[in-house]
Amino acid sequence: MQGIWTTERIRAAEDRLLAVTPDGELMRRAAFGLAVHAAEMLAEHTGSVSGRRVTLLVGSGNNGGDALWAGAFLRRRNVAVSAILLKPERAHGPGLAALKRSGGKIVSLEDGPQWISRADLVVDGIVGISARGSLRPDAAALLGHVGSPVLAVDLPSGVDPDTGAVDGPAVVADRTVTFGALKPVHALAPASCGEVFLVDIGLRLTDPDLQRLDTADVAAAWPVPGPDDDKYSQGVVGIAAGSATYPGAAVLAAGAAVRATSGLVRYAGHAADVVRGQWPEIIATGSVTDAGRVQAWVVGPGIGTGNEGRDVLRFVLGRGVPVCADADATTIIARSPDVLDARDPGTPLVLTPHAGEFERLMGAPPGADRVAAARSAARKYDAVVLLKGHCTVIAAPDGRALVNTPRGSWLATAGSGDVLSGLVGALLASGLDPWLAAGAATHVHSLAGSLAADGAPTSASGILAAVPDAIRSVRSLTS
Ligand SMILES: NC(=O)C1=CN([C@@H]2O[C@H](COP(=O)(O)OP(=O)(O)OC[C@H]3O[C@@H](n4cnc5c(N)ncnc54)[C@H](O)[C@@H]3O)[C@@H](O)[C@H]2O)[C@H](O)CC1
Ligand SMILES: [K+]
C-alpha cells in the first residue's frame, strides 16, 4: 500500500523535521534529488547533459528555492542554467545566491519567453504545496512558450495539491519529483504529473490520509484455488442483473465474475437463457428467490428501476451477505432509500456510482474534492463507495480511502461498469474486506482496460476478455 498525505499533514511533518535539521539542509537534500532527475531527463531527451540548457521557472517560495538550488547543482555538470524569477523581490535568497555563485543566469520576466523556447528542459518551480488556485497570469503566460519536456518540482503548478483539480491554467509535466511523501495530486492528477518520483528527505509520517494499492497488494488479495478448494469453497457469487430486453449487462457482469475467480457463479434474472448460452459454467435461474445460496450478490446492471427491480434489490439486501449495488440499483436506492431497511444489519454494501449516480445519491455532484465526496457518501449510506471516474476513489464508512490511478481512459466505454461490478462481486464472495475488494477489482479492471486497448479503442467485451491477462500480470512474480 502506498501512503498519501494531505499538504497540511506534510507541512506539519516538515516543520517538525526542520526544527531538528540544520538550516537549509532539507531543501538541499530535495534539490539534489531534483537535479539528479533533471540530468536524467536531459540525457534521455537529448543524449547528453553537459552543455545542455535548462530554464527554471522560479516562484516566490520554497518551491522556487528547490529549483534554484537544483540549478546550482546542475551547473556542476556544466549545464547552462537560466532562472526566470516571477517575483524577483521575493525569490528564495540562499537559493538565488547559490545559483549566481555557480554561474547560473538570472533573466527578466520580459526576456523569459526566449529562454523557455530554447531550453532543453524546463523546471517548474513556480509553486508547490502552498498553491492556491490555478496559475497567476504572469506564470500562465510563460507556459505558452514551452517546447521541451517539463520537470515539476514537488507537483505541477496550478493543480490543486490536495484534490488534483485543475480549473484554469496549469503546468502539464512529463515528470514530477516530489519530496518526503506523496500528496493527493500525485494519485489524482496523473495527466498533469507525468511520471512521479519520490525523493526521501527524512520525513516520517504515519496514518496516511489516502492510500493506493501496489500490485503486490492486489496479488495478495486475489483468490487462487488451493488443493483443498472446490467450486463452493472460494465463494459463490450471485449476479442479479439484466432483463430479457437488455441481457448484455447480465452477460458482462456474470462473465466478469466467471473470469475473476474459479468459484461458482449463479445468475438470477430474465436473461437466464442468454447468460447460460454465453457462460455454460453458470447456474442460471429466472428469479433471485430460487437462486440458491451465495456468499455475495451483485445487483443492478440492467434490472431497471421499476417495482420489480426494487423487489429484487430488497430481496438481495435481506440475504445477510455482502452486496455490490451497481447501476440501476444505485438509482433505486437514491429514489427509495427505504429499500435499505431490508438490509440485514452489518451486511457489507458496496455502491459503485459514476458522477451522475452520485448526484442522485447525494443531491449534488462530487465536486472538486472527490475523496471528500466519496467519504461523505460512505458515511451517509454506511457503505463502501466506489466513486467511478478518471481516477476512481474508494471510501469506506470508517474513513479509509483508496485511489486508483488510471492507465489512460480506455474504460470509458459502454458496459465497462458491468464488468467492474462482476469483479467486485467475485472478490466479495471470496470473503475479502469490501473496501479492499472494491480497490483490487478496480485495479484489475483498469489494467484489463489498458491491456485490451493496447493503444486503440476497446469495448466492454474486450476488457472482459483481458481480465485473465490482467490477473496474470498482477500475480506474475517477474513483472
Ligand atoms: N520546508 C522545507 O524546507 C521544504 C520545502 N520544500 C519545498 O517547499 C515548497 C513549499 O514552499 P512554500 O514556501 O510553502 O510555498 P510554495 O513555494 O508552494 O508557494 C510559494 C508562493 O507561491 C504563490 N502562489 C500560490 N498559489 C499560486 C498559484 N496558483 N500560481 C502562482 N503562484 C502561486 C504564493 O505567493 C505562495 O506563497 C514545497 O512544495 C517544496 O517544493 C521541499 O519539499 C524541501 C523541504
Ligand atoms: K511546482
From TrEMBL:
<comment type="function">
    <text>Catalyzes the epimerization of the S- and R-forms of NAD(P)HX, a damaged form of NAD(P)H that is a result of enzymatic or heat-dependent hydration. This is a prerequisite for the S-specific NAD(P)H-hydrate dehydratase to allow the repair of both epimers of NAD(P)HX.</text>
</comment>
<keyword id="KW-0521">NADP</keyword>
<feature type="domain" description="YjeF N-terminal">
    <location>
        <begin position="6"/>
        <end position="209"/>
    </location>
</feature>
<comment type="similarity">
    <text>In the N-terminal section; belongs to the NnrE/AIBP family.</text>
</comment>
<comment type="similarity">
    <text>In the C-terminal section; belongs to the NnrD/CARKD family.</text>
</comment>
<feature type="binding site">
    <location>
        <begin position="62"/>
        <end position="66"/>
    </location>
    <ligand>
        <name>(6S)-NADPHX</name>
    </ligand>
</feature>
<keyword id="KW-0413">Isomerase</keyword>
<feature type="binding site">
    <location>
        <position position="417"/>
    </location>
    <ligand>
        <name>AMP</name>
    </ligand>
</feature>
<dbReference type="GO" id="GO:0046872">
    <property type="term" value="F:metal ion binding"/>
</dbReference>
<dbReference type="GO" id="GO:0046496">
    <property type="term" value="P:nicotinamide nucleotide metabolic process"/>
</dbReference>
<feature type="binding site">
    <location>
        <position position="124"/>
    </location>
    <ligand>
        <name>K(+)</name>
    </ligand>
</feature>
<dbReference type="GO" id="GO:0052856">
    <property type="term" value="F:NAD(P)HX epimerase activity"/>
</dbReference>
<dbReference type="InterPro" id="IPR030677">
    <property type="entry name" value="Nnr"/>
</dbReference>
<feature type="binding site">
    <location>
        <begin position="388"/>
        <end position="392"/>
    </location>
    <ligand>
        <name>AMP</name>
    </ligand>
</feature>
<dbReference type="InterPro" id="IPR017953">
    <property type="entry name" value="Carbohydrate_kinase_pred_CS"/>
</dbReference>
<keyword id="KW-0547">Nucleotide-binding</keyword>
<comment type="subunit">
    <text>Homotetramer.</text>
</comment>
<dbReference type="InterPro" id="IPR004443">
    <property type="entry name" value="YjeF_N_dom"/>
</dbReference>
<dbReference type="InterPro" id="IPR036652">
    <property type="entry name" value="YjeF_N_dom_sf"/>
</dbReference>
<dbReference type="GO" id="GO:0110051">
    <property type="term" value="P:metabolite repair"/>
</dbReference>
<dbReference type="GO" id="GO:0005524">
    <property type="term" value="F:ATP binding"/>
</dbReference>
<dbReference type="Pfam" id="PF03853">
    <property type="entry name" value="YjeF_N"/>
</dbReference>
<dbReference type="InterPro" id="IPR000631">
    <property type="entry name" value="CARKD"/>
</dbReference>
<keyword id="KW-0479">Metal-binding</keyword>
<feature type="binding site">
    <location>
        <position position="154"/>
    </location>
    <ligand>
        <name>(6S)-NADPHX</name>
    </ligand>
</feature>
<feature type="binding site">
    <location>
        <position position="249"/>
    </location>
    <ligand>
        <name>(6S)-NADPHX</name>
    </ligand>
</feature>
<keyword id="KW-0067">ATP-binding</keyword>
<keyword id="KW-0511">Multifunctional enzyme</keyword>
<dbReference type="Pfam" id="PF01256">
    <property type="entry name" value="Carb_kinase"/>
</dbReference>
<keyword id="KW-0630">Potassium</keyword>
<dbReference type="InterPro" id="IPR029056">
    <property type="entry name" value="Ribokinase-like"/>
</dbReference>
<keyword id="KW-0456">Lyase</keyword>
<feature type="binding site">
    <location>
        <position position="354"/>
    </location>
    <ligand>
        <name>(6S)-NADPHX</name>
    </ligand>
</feature>
<feature type="binding site">
    <location>
        <position position="157"/>
    </location>
    <ligand>
        <name>K(+)</name>
    </ligand>
</feature>
<feature type="binding site">
    <location>
        <position position="302"/>
    </location>
    <ligand>
        <name>(6S)-NADPHX</name>
    </ligand>
</feature>
<feature type="binding site">
    <location>
        <position position="418"/>
    </location>
    <ligand>
        <name>(6S)-NADPHX</name>
    </ligand>
</feature>
<feature type="binding site">
    <location>
        <begin position="128"/>
        <end position="134"/>
    </location>
    <ligand>
        <name>(6S)-NADPHX</name>
    </ligand>
</feature>
<keyword id="KW-0520">NAD</keyword>
<comment type="function">
    <text>Catalyzes the dehydration of the S-form of NAD(P)HX at the expense of ADP, which is converted to AMP. Together with NAD(P)HX epimerase, which catalyzes the epimerization of the S- and R-forms, the enzyme allows the repair of both epimers of NAD(P)HX, a damaged form of NAD(P)H that is a result of enzymatic or heat-dependent hydration.</text>
</comment>
<feature type="binding site">
    <location>
        <position position="63"/>
    </location>
    <ligand>
        <name>K(+)</name>
    </ligand>
</feature>
<feature type="domain" description="YjeF C-terminal">
    <location>
        <begin position="214"/>
        <end position="474"/>
    </location>
</feature>
<protein>
    <recommendedName>
        <fullName>Bifunctional NAD(P)H-hydrate repair enzyme</fullName>
        <ecNumber>4.2.1.136</ecNumber>
        <ecNumber>5.1.99.6</ecNumber>
    </recommendedName>
</protein>
